[in-house]
Design goal:
267 residues, alpha/beta, 5 strands, 43% helix
Length: 267
Amino acid sequence: MNVSRSAYYSWLKRPAKIITEQELMLYRRCKSLFNASRQSAGARTLVKLLRKEGFSVGIYRVRRLMMKLSLVVKQRRAYKVTTLRKHSHLVTDNLLDRQFNPGKANQVWAGDITYLRTHQGWMYLAIVMDLHSRRIVGWAMSKSMTVDLTVRAFQMAVNLRQPAEGLLFHSDRGSQYTSKRYQSLLKRNKVIASMSGRGACLDNAVVERFFGSLKNEWLLHVSHQSRNSMQVDVEKYIKYYNYERLHTTLNDMSPIEFESVKEMCAA
């Protein structure tokens, strides 16, 4: 092992560092939480998660711990916009106007479509998010980027939330959202349509951020052989996102936890 005799005996005499049971538990939970996030949780996020579990830790301690445990955050990568409007379709004004924090649930929803690569070919994901809690309330996946994809996602959200009249739904100007079928669906449910400006991705920044988190925190460096395995994995992330992932804008709570706290306060 290329160790000298004197170094070996010096090592034998050196006192072993004793790790307390609490310290060992901290190591285990830090590594477990990091792996649960698929190597995307940085030191700041881990501090919040560990404090929620009762650990008294600071940012510098967690950074040292991550270095000791070789916990390295994955690097992000850029992605592109996928939807384009047909010029024969009508568009609506941007009524949302980047007001991404409505005071109550089911006041403002937002939706969009993104692409996901598998070895069988592309998969497309459409989501509907309640901007109040950032909760994903509807989603659908398909190998085709059709109007039916967005309709299924919206219908799932309606079935789950049963929104009252006057809900605002914001999207981009993709043909799936400007189509007569989709606009008729919104009117039947007495939903008001709002659309981003042309090429203005920041007008729907919260949904774009969700897609970025999905791709850069969850799917980065993960290779899916089939569309089915991709769908299972995406649904797993949506559950993780809704129930566990902390949001700074939600006072470091998950969407489900935030909604529960709001309901208790209202009661």
